[in-house]
Amino acid sequence: MATTAAPEPSADRLRRVLTEHGPALRRFATSWTRSDAERDDLLQDIAIALLAALPRFRGDCPERAFVWRVAHNRACTATSQRKRTEAFDGTVDVESRASTSPSPHDVVEHRQRLDRLQRALRLLRADQRLLVMLALEGLSLDETAAVVGGTANAVGVRLHRARAALLAAVASLDVPQETP
Question: In terms of Cα–Cα distance, which of 57, 64, 55 is closest to 20?
Fold first, then answer.
Protein backbone atom coordinates (compact mmCIF):
# COMPACT_ATOMS: atom_id res chain seq x y z
CA MET A 1 0.00 0.00 0.00
CA ALA A 2 1.52 3.29 -1.12
CA THR A 3 1.32 6.23 1.19
CA THR A 4 1.05 9.72 -0.07
CA ALA A 5 2.44 12.68 1.81
CA ALA A 6 0.00 15.25 3.04
CA PRO A 7 0.05 18.37 0.88
CA GLU A 8 2.27 21.14 2.18
CA PRO A 9 0.20 24.06 3.56
CA SER A 10 0.33 27.12 1.28
CA ALA A 11 2.07 29.41 3.78
CA ASP A 12 4.69 26.77 4.61
CA ARG A 13 5.26 26.06 0.94
CA LEU A 14 5.66 29.75 0.14
CA ARG A 15 8.05 30.17 3.07
CA ARG A 16 10.15 27.22 1.82
CA VAL A 17 10.18 28.52 -1.78
CA LEU A 18 11.15 32.04 -0.69
CA THR A 19 13.88 30.69 1.58
CA GLU A 20 15.25 28.53 -1.21
CA HIS A 21 14.94 31.05 -4.06
CA GLY A 22 14.88 34.37 -2.18
CA PRO A 23 18.44 35.55 -2.92
CA ALA A 24 18.04 34.77 -6.64
CA LEU A 25 14.65 36.49 -6.75
CA ARG A 26 16.18 39.54 -5.06
CA ARG A 27 18.89 39.73 -7.74
CA PHE A 28 16.22 39.25 -10.40
CA ALA A 29 14.06 42.05 -8.98
CA THR A 30 17.09 44.34 -8.80
CA SER A 31 17.66 43.85 -12.53
CA TRP A 32 14.07 44.98 -13.25
CA THR A 33 13.87 48.02 -10.99
CA ARG A 34 15.57 51.38 -10.52
CA SER A 35 15.48 51.78 -6.74
CA ASP A 36 15.50 49.72 -3.58
CA ALA A 37 11.87 50.66 -2.89
CA GLU A 38 10.76 49.47 -6.34
CA ARG A 39 12.76 46.26 -5.84
CA ASP A 40 11.08 45.59 -2.51
CA ASP A 41 7.64 46.26 -4.02
CA LEU A 42 8.37 43.86 -6.88
CA LEU A 43 9.59 41.19 -4.45
CA GLN A 44 6.37 41.55 -2.48
CA ASP A 45 4.32 41.28 -5.69
CA ILE A 46 6.26 38.15 -6.67
CA ALA A 47 5.61 36.60 -3.26
CA ILE A 48 1.88 37.31 -3.54
CA ALA A 49 1.82 35.87 -7.06
CA LEU A 50 3.66 32.77 -5.86
CA LEU A 51 1.21 32.32 -2.99
CA ALA A 52 -1.64 32.29 -5.51
CA ALA A 53 0.19 30.15 -8.10
CA LEU A 54 1.88 27.46 -6.01
CA PRO A 55 -1.34 25.50 -5.30
CA ARG A 56 -1.78 25.16 -9.08
CA PHE A 57 1.76 23.85 -9.63
CA ARG A 58 1.37 20.35 -11.10
CA GLY A 59 5.03 19.39 -11.19
CA ASP A 60 5.24 19.24 -14.99
CA CYS A 61 8.52 21.22 -14.82
CA PRO A 62 11.09 21.78 -12.06
CA GLU A 63 9.76 23.93 -9.24
CA ARG A 64 12.61 26.38 -9.79
CA ALA A 65 11.49 26.89 -13.40
CA PHE A 66 7.92 27.47 -12.21
CA VAL A 67 9.09 30.06 -9.67
CA TRP A 68 11.05 31.90 -12.36
CA ARG A 69 8.09 31.89 -14.73
CA VAL A 70 5.87 33.45 -12.06
CA ALA A 71 8.56 36.02 -11.16
CA HIS A 72 9.10 36.97 -14.80
CA ASN A 73 5.38 37.37 -15.48
CA ARG A 74 4.98 39.55 -12.39
CA ALA A 75 8.01 41.68 -13.32
CA CYS A 76 6.65 42.25 -16.83
CA THR A 77 3.29 43.29 -15.42
CA ALA A 78 4.86 45.62 -12.84
CA THR A 79 7.08 47.23 -15.47
CA SER A 80 4.20 47.93 -17.83
CA GLN A 81 2.13 49.34 -14.96
CA ARG A 82 5.01 51.60 -13.92
CA LYS A 83 5.46 52.88 -17.49
CA ARG A 84 1.74 53.65 -17.77
CA THR A 85 1.80 55.52 -14.45
CA GLU A 86 4.87 57.54 -15.44
CA ALA A 87 3.33 58.39 -18.80
CA PHE A 88 0.12 59.50 -17.06
CA ASP A 89 1.55 61.70 -14.32
CA GLY A 90 4.84 62.66 -15.96
CA THR A 91 6.98 61.56 -13.05
CA VAL A 92 10.12 59.51 -13.36
CA ASP A 93 11.76 58.02 -10.30
CA VAL A 94 15.33 59.32 -10.02
CA GLU A 95 17.82 56.60 -9.17
CA SER A 96 19.76 57.45 -6.05
CA ARG A 97 22.28 54.87 -4.96
CA ALA A 98 24.87 57.05 -3.31
CA SER A 99 26.66 55.42 -0.43
CA THR A 100 26.36 57.10 2.95
CA SER A 101 29.63 55.70 4.23
CA PRO A 102 33.10 55.97 2.72
CA SER A 103 34.42 52.76 1.15
CA PRO A 104 37.73 51.60 -0.30
CA HIS A 105 38.48 52.22 -3.97
CA ASP A 106 38.08 48.58 -5.04
CA VAL A 107 34.63 48.37 -3.43
CA VAL A 108 33.56 51.51 -5.29
CA GLU A 109 34.84 50.13 -8.59
CA HIS A 110 33.03 46.85 -7.99
CA ARG A 111 29.79 48.69 -7.25
CA GLN A 112 30.18 50.81 -10.37
CA ARG A 113 30.67 47.71 -12.51
CA LEU A 114 27.64 46.09 -10.90
CA ASP A 115 25.54 49.22 -11.47
CA ARG A 116 26.69 49.37 -15.10
CA LEU A 117 25.72 45.72 -15.55
CA GLN A 118 22.30 46.32 -13.99
CA ARG A 119 21.72 49.35 -16.24
CA ALA A 120 22.78 47.30 -19.25
CA LEU A 121 20.39 44.51 -18.23
CA ARG A 122 17.54 47.03 -18.11
CA LEU A 123 18.40 48.08 -21.69
CA LEU A 124 17.73 44.53 -22.96
CA ARG A 125 14.32 43.40 -24.18
CA ALA A 126 12.39 41.57 -21.46
CA ASP A 127 12.88 38.14 -23.07
CA GLN A 128 16.64 38.69 -23.37
CA ARG A 129 16.88 39.98 -19.80
CA LEU A 130 15.11 36.88 -18.53
CA LEU A 131 17.44 34.53 -20.43
CA VAL A 132 20.54 36.28 -19.10
CA MET A 133 19.21 36.33 -15.52
CA LEU A 134 18.33 32.63 -15.64
CA ALA A 135 21.81 31.84 -16.97
CA LEU A 136 23.39 33.95 -14.22
CA GLU A 137 21.34 32.03 -11.67
CA GLY A 138 22.69 28.75 -13.03
CA LEU A 139 19.58 27.30 -14.64
CA SER A 140 20.33 24.71 -17.28
CA LEU A 141 19.09 25.15 -20.84
CA ASP A 142 16.42 22.51 -20.15
CA GLU A 143 15.23 24.37 -17.05
CA THR A 144 15.29 27.67 -18.92
CA ALA A 145 13.27 26.09 -21.74
CA ALA A 146 10.68 25.08 -19.14
CA VAL A 147 10.43 28.72 -18.06
CA VAL A 148 10.36 30.45 -21.44
CA GLY A 149 9.07 27.66 -23.67
CA GLY A 150 10.75 26.01 -26.64
CA THR A 151 13.58 23.53 -26.84
CA ALA A 152 16.90 23.64 -25.04
CA ASN A 153 18.67 24.16 -28.39
CA ALA A 154 16.47 27.12 -29.30
CA VAL A 155 17.01 28.59 -25.84
CA GLY A 156 20.77 28.19 -26.30
CA VAL A 157 20.66 30.19 -29.53
CA ARG A 158 18.47 32.88 -27.97
CA LEU A 159 20.77 33.03 -24.92
CA HIS A 160 23.80 33.48 -27.17
CA ARG A 161 22.05 36.43 -28.86
CA ALA A 162 20.99 37.86 -25.50
CA ARG A 163 24.58 37.71 -24.23
CA ALA A 164 25.76 39.52 -27.36
CA ALA A 165 23.08 42.17 -26.81
CA LEU A 166 24.20 42.53 -23.18
CA LEU A 167 27.82 43.04 -24.24
CA ALA A 168 26.69 45.69 -26.72
CA ALA A 169 24.60 47.38 -24.02
CA VAL A 170 27.54 47.43 -21.59
CA ALA A 171 29.77 48.84 -24.33
CA SER A 172 27.22 51.55 -25.12
CA LEU A 173 27.29 52.62 -21.47
CA ASP A 174 31.08 52.98 -21.64
CA VAL A 175 30.94 55.41 -24.57
CA PRO A 176 30.86 59.01 -23.34
CA GLN A 177 27.72 60.82 -24.45
CA GLU A 178 28.17 64.13 -26.27
CA THR A 179 26.34 67.09 -24.81
CA PRO A 180 24.87 69.66 -27.22
Answer: 64
